[in-house]
Fold this sequence. Notes:
Layout: H1 4-12, H2 19-31, H3 33-54, H4 60-76
Helix pairs in contact: 1-3, 2-3, 3-4
Amino acid sequence: MKSCKEVSQLLASDKELGVFDKLSLKLHFSVCKVCRIYKQQQEAITKVYKERLKKKNTSISETAKKIEDSVIKKYTEE
Length: 78
């Protein structure tokens, strides 16, 4: 089974994952709550970032600030 470090590296990678890597991730997520949460956070940040970039008059620095504010708000409310 992959370590948390290996999982975070796979999630950060831009390469297409093979069958073995996908299965390894599923197995790891089934036992590691921290990595599941990390994956969810990464997906949420990516989604917000892409949505913000779609708006025509939004600069990248404005987008980064909004993402940061959104993430801070979400995780300080819990």
